[in-house]
Amino acid sequence: MNPTPANVISALSQGAARTMEGDSLPRLLLVDDEPRLLASLYELLRDKDYELVTATTGAEAVAQLTRIRFDLVLLDLRLPDMSGHQIMDFINERSIDCDVIVMSGDVGIEAAIGALKRGAYDYLRKPYSREELLKTVANCIKQRRLAVAHARMAAQLETSEKMYRYLVDSSPDIIYTLNHEGKFTFVNDRAYQLLGLTREELIGKHYSILVHEEDLERARYVFNERRVDERASRNVELRLKCFNGNGLDRTFNNTLMTISLNSIGMHVADGDVTKHEFFGTYGVARDITDRKRAEEVISYQAYHDILTDLPNRMLFKDRLGLAVIQAKRKLTELAVMFIDLDRFKLVNDTLGHVKGDELLQQVAIRLKDCLRRGDTLARQGGDEFTIVLPELRDRDDARTIADKFLECLHKPFDLDGHEVHISASIGIAVYPSDGETIDELLRHADIAMYQVKAQGKNGHSFYHEAMLDMSHQKIQLEQALRKALEQNELEMYYQPQIDVATGRIIGAEGLMRWNHPTRGLLTAGEFLPFAEENGLMLPISDWMLGALCRDLLMWNANGGGDLRLSLNLSPQYLDRGDFFEKMRGALVRYGISPAQIEVEITENICIRNPQYAMEQLNKLGQLGVSVAIDDFGTGYSSLSYLHRFPVHTIKIDQSFVKEIGDENGHYPVILAIISIARGLGLNLIAEGVETDVQARYLQANGCTTMQGYHYYRPVSLTSFIGVLQEQGGTPQEDSGDGPRLAIQA
């Protein structure tokens, strides 16, 4: 976007020299769609001897650029009607003579690359400092002045030696000449500014005193250029030494031209002879150090994860591809690992994303310490990492490193005083037995990782073909589950709840079943996990809400009008913003009293987003719907939630009930839960009661409402209504808030 000397000269003839000759102040166009930021930018520059014009949209900026000549545009990339890149394209297409400084909050590398490719003078990432902006603008105006002065002097060089000297000495580039021995015969003042050597110190010295040792061989050909005309014009990058005390070498782009001296020989008898003798070299060296550094930063960021500084997915695939080629050539094996952190989402939900990012950084450091030299660890995204282990001797090498990973992650992580424990699920694929391409190895390692997840997490597993069959079965199950909703294959079963004091049924827990066309009746545990993973819980929960309301109408018609129906909600369903409206709409549509409904939640829902959960449950309470805590004691929440949330019922999880083996034994967790319920005046239900010993122990210690195989197995709606009718219609009321019907998806 910076103009060439010829373009500048043409612009000068049309009045573009107004700024450089002092006729007016440099004119700046400020473009930003945020009024506050635009006003702040205007105030920052208004006292700096600039003429300022503002624009809040792309169309307004284009109109100003068409009407007025500007020296500099300060441009935001994100505008309401067009992007900053489009405005830069407009400037380039119209050959508008102005510089552009891009200011953007976009953290993506593509935005910066796009701006630099379109010729932006600089790219400032928001928020930028006041000093950085002022310095960049001043440098741009200064460089523009130098460029225009340089071009003007070049136009007058043919007729003015004085103008030539001024141009050379004020040039932003090093301009020099060498004799045929490679010694300096002229150098401008820019050499002192950039390299720290005066003109007197360089004249007569060989060029090699400036060239970096590693570039001397290339410089020998460059500085001895003997070609003339267009054939001699080329760009070569060389590193030159600095003597100004900063200890940094600088990189220069050398544009070289050869000067030849035409001489006429002495008159001899055979005639005149014209001789061309090599005289030396004329060169222009442009400092591109900052550009090279910017290119290195951009290149590094394009291939590395900014958070962990690990190779990203693109660089990992590149290195894996090279490792595969080498393994194929040497007939060796290599391993690819896919690592997914267990319980990472819980850290994000409880401590926030900032702590989650800190955890990922600590995990990356620990994993890197376990690697061999030559191994590559990369971050795929989120909490997923990939590793390539080249030159594998045997599978035990991969197994050993995987064990090291699990061991290092077993130690607690300290996140500003919060002690966090996590683990990992690791899948391993080996070349060439598990795949010969990059995509095959990554996919099979991913499948092996999910197999570890399914088996309880915190472990590693090598891929084998049976896993692929299981993966296909999961895909088929997901597809069939989507059809099950459309073809009405889902059904609610009910497990009666018993008042052991009277032996009567006082409610039931609903359990979802799937009448699979080929596999028969499937329990909820066989398909609901897939629904959670694949985004099907919301439509399934919608179906469940409608099915339960329809079933409740049948109970009311058969004398069960006092039963309370409890919906065991998926966290995803509760998090959905329209859940309350869905519930209220269903109750109105089917004419059901809210007092018959009890929403059943788990403790973990309380810590996902406690404030939002509390708002939702309080709205249900105002509607007349009560709340129950399911699987009490198995989650991570505090007992304070029993006070903060509108809870009416708690349920003893079957994992605690199974521990009861002696009715005269002591089971403190059971006793504590019973005591909490009694102290807070809450209803209490024990789940999973399977033996007479368990029933007697619970009853003896104050829990009189139970369910489990000891009394009834889950039955269909028709069978459940039949059982109710056999015991005489409406179930008897208990001593609490009334009988309940707990429904669990």
TrEMBL record:
Domain annotation PAS: ranges: 160-231
Keyword annotations: Phosphoprotein
GO BP: phosphorelay signal transduction system; regulation of DNA-templated transcription
Domain GGDEF: 332-465
Species of the source: Zemynaea arenosa
Pfam families for this protein: EAL, GGDEF, PAS, Response_reg
Residue positions, PTM 4-aspartylphosphate: D76
UniProt-listed Gene3D superfamilies: 3.30.70.270, 3.40.50.2300, EAL domain (3.20.20.450), PAS domain (3.30.450.20)
Start and end residues of each EAL domain: 474-728
PANTHER family attached to this UniProt entry: BIOFILM ARCHITECTURE MAINTENANCE PROTEIN MBAA, DIGUANYLATE CYCLASE DGCP
Domain of life: Bacteria
Gene Ontology terms, MF aspect: catalytic activity
Name the record gives this protein: EAL domain-containing protein
InterPro entries with a match to the protein in the record: Biofilm_reg_signaling, CheY-like_superfamily, EAL_dom, EAL_sf, GGDEF_dom, Nucleotide_cyclase, PAS, PAS-like_dom_sf
Residues annotated as domain Response regulatory: 27-141
